Amino acid sequence: MYPDYMAESLRKVVQTRPGRLELARKPAPVYPPMSAEERQAVLEGFHPDFEPSARRKVHVGPNRGETVTTEVAELLESHSWLRSEQVNLDKPDFETDLLIIGGGGAGCNAALVAMKEHGMRSIISTKLRMGDANSMMSQGGMQAAVSRTDSPPRHYLDAIGGGHFENKPELVRALTEDGPGVVKWLEDLGVVWDKLEDGSLKVMHGGGTSRKRMLSCRDYTGAMIMRTLMDEVRNHPDMIAVKEFMPAVELIMDNKGRCAGAVLYDMESEEFFTVKAKATLVATGGYGRLHIRGFDTTNHYGATGDGLVMAYRAGARLMYMDSVQYHPTGVSFPEQIAGFLVTEAIRGAGGQPLNKDGELFVFPREPRDVEAAAIIRECVQNGGGIPTPSGRVGVWLDSPLIDMLHGEGYTDKHFPAMYRQFIRYGIDITKLPMLIYPSLHYQNGGIEINERCETDIPGLYVAGEASGGLHGRNRLMGNSVLDYNVFGRRAGRYAGEYAKSVKLGKLSLAHLDKYENELKDAGVKTDLVTPVLLPSYAPEDVKKRQLLRGNNNLPGPAVVNRMHEERPGA
Amino acid sequence: MARSAAETKERMVTVSIMGKPYDVPADATIMGAIEYAGHQIIRGAGCREGYCGACATIYRLPGDYKIYGGLACMTMVEDGMTLAQVPSVPAEKAIYDIEKLKPNVSAIEQHYPSVFRCVACGTCTRSCPQGLQVMDYVQAAKRGDIAEVMDLSFDCVVCGLCMLRCPAEIVQPLVGILAKRLYGRYLRKDSPELAERVKAVEEGAFNAEYAKLISMNRDSLSKLYYARDSE
């Protein structure tokens, strides 16, 4: 339940609700959407990316001299777990056609397509279990232009406008044009989409959509897709080997500058294994667990940007790594679920963000960065937020409107996960609003790819959140689920094709030594060792005792903790 | 996130994590308590938001003979609780070609015949942290009612607690996954507009429109975007 001191604010929400319900029933927007100038002003004034310490120059690697998110710069200016002389590459422990790093949606799609279209074998290396990925967690849905009032080029325009016209056009075209085909691919694998009586797909609005385009599987969309893909992967044990709790820690190159596999680390036995692969796909997802600017995150436990730093050391360029997505509606109260995602579909279905006086202050479906910045502005500048007992702040998201608009039982049927999330703490979201605040959600940029998922490095492919360019500096809701399906499939297709003909040379980890020298030459002083693999949530006193393990720069929780401890604002 | 020193002054309770007592904040989730104790979880945490089923946990409470189960990320600690996480639940997934199955009881008989051992005791339903009617969907599977299994198992997070408690040793979540796939593949009502749209894309129906959009400069694209109508 909400603490007593919030009762007055809750009363105001109830008082203003009939009027807001009337507005919601009319075709006009319930609040005026922002113009281009208004969007720019709220972003520059209140989006966390625009705070002076949010970004800095990176001093090494392919993007040297460019400005990136501060925590990303720290991640990139770090030591490898390995030096080349430690690893014997003469006899790889495993050989395969396609090594897929990351067992989320993109990785599973790629393995299936490489097998089906090219008869290629894969190894999927994953840090936790297969499916322990942000793919599993998407609630609200997947965009795809399937309805008669919509079209793929219209989806293109919405996506590129949401990304402030900085998206790579060929990637947005691939995303939007492949969309309908992905819906069918998934349906034929057995994904149960929400449908209307006549069999047509149920479509909803998301932030920044001009047509209803959000497809869903109740509010377990990601879980439904991910479990279907995993089940199909596991139906092919002869073709796809899954190595769980065995993340990659470095890429392996050959003497012709091609990517040729990776070194894996067994989280349990602490052994290192070498994999020689004709082609390698980085599908490691994003970096929410780096808790950029100290924000809570919606992300899964292993989202530590591992693929970014591995590919960067190997020489792949990054794109738009100066831009972070904060989801407008993370949970602010109860504290136990602070930062958890409240699906954007709640606003798509008519939920309205309100200040402490129960008043609308923003159009509920602005693109994510704009919506998030507007919520921060309402709290920071206008004093419209409601403080929580643990020192957070939030605004209301009026969910009871949903049943009023669509009929009783709608929330139960379409948002069972959201309902469960809150009822555990005595908050019935069909009767009470949720208290929300922006939460660290998505890595807008990543390793630059083209529409074939190729990078600067032959044999290195990237798909999903780890890639950069598709979303510009702001992704719209539902485009990441589509992204990992479209580009996961494309990666399987093109990497599979490439793997057929490539003849690898001598394997090498010389790039690690070169990078180490570059760090030295740039005068970088750090004891951070990456990839991070897992965040630590031990209390400060425990961390201090863990650090006593020694002034080593070997990997392990002691070193990994440093990043979180020393982060500004943590 | 890690708690600050000020926050740790709040009310504490004692819980036994795998038999070893720790003082932890009274308002912590089980996952929060394990991390507060300084453990680095490797198995036993995934999405941390109740979707992935990685954090199945069993526990007892003082003076209570019962064994309880829950998701560590979603369940609050209680004073005197003694708990252990379940790192993995052994279960053999059937291997099948979905294209060769029929959406009826034959698929269940062939791949998960253990469902016919169900004695309708209801232990699975009582052990489900999602509050699903697990026994009802096992019964539906016995009848070959694939649509009912799909509907009732839709929100299953595959934590495995029902499998652990089932006296008939049925693998309920895997039956649910098979049924959902069968429903999606065979029993769905097809969308006529989806088939048309897929065909249109294949035939290049949007090529000209894309070419035009891609050739536009930022200003004209921006004008078009802000002037677009909305449904």
On the 0 to 100 scale, the average pLDDT of chain A is: 93
What CATH architecture of the largest domain in chain B would you give? Orthogonal Bundle
As an assembly, this protein is heterodimer
Quote the beta fraction of chain B. Answer: 5-15%
Sheet bearing the most strands of chain A, described?
A: 8 strands, mixed
Largest interface: A-B, 95 and 78 residues
At the fold tier of CATH, the topology name of the largest domain in chain B is: Fumarate Reductase Iron-sulfur Protein, Chain B, domain 2
Count of beta strands of chain A: 22
CATH superfamily name of the largest domain in chain A? FAD/NAD(P)-binding domain
List the SSEs and their pairings.
The complex is a heterodimer of chains A (570) and B (231).
Chain A: H1 7-25, H2 36-46, E1 55-57, E2 67-69, H3 70-76, E3 79-80, E4 94-101, H4 105-118, E5 122-125, E6 142-143, H5 152-162, H6 169-189, E7 214-215, H7 221-234, E8 240-243, E9 248-254, E10 259-265, E11 272-282, H8 306-314, E12 318-319, E13 324-333, H9 345-348, E14 352-354, H10 368-380, E15 386-387, E16 393-398, H11 400-406, H12 410-414, H13 416-423, E17 434-443, E18 446-448, E19 460-462, E20 467-468, H14 479-501, E21 507-508, H15 510-521, E22 529-530, H16 540-547, H17 557-565
Parallel strand pairs in A: 3-22, 4-5, 4-11, 5-8, 11-19, 18-20
Antiparallel strand pairs in A: 1-2, 6-7, 9-10, 9-21, 10-11, 12-18, 13-17, 14-16, 15-16, 16-17
Helix pairs in contact in A: 2-10, 4-7, 4-14, 5-6, 6-14, 16-17
Chain B: E1 12-17, E2 20-25, H1 30-36, E3 56-60, E4 68-71, E5 82-85, H2 105-111, H3 123-127, H4 134-143, H5 146-153, H6 161-165, H7 172-187, H8 192-202, H9 207-215, H10 218-227
Parallel strand pairs in B: 1-5
Antiparallel strand pairs in B: 1-2, 3-4, 3-5
Q: What are the defining features of this structure?
A:
heterodimer, A: 570 residues, alpha/beta, Flavocytochrome C3, Chain A, domain 1, FAD/NAD(P)-binding domain, 2 domains, eight-stranded mixed β-sheet, five-stranded antiparallel β-sheet, 17 helices, 22 strands, 17% strand, disordered C terminus, B: 231 residues, alpha+beta, Ubiquitin-like (UB roll), Fumarate Reductase Iron-sulfur Protein, Chain B, domain 2, five-stranded mixed β-sheet, 5 strands, disordered N terminus
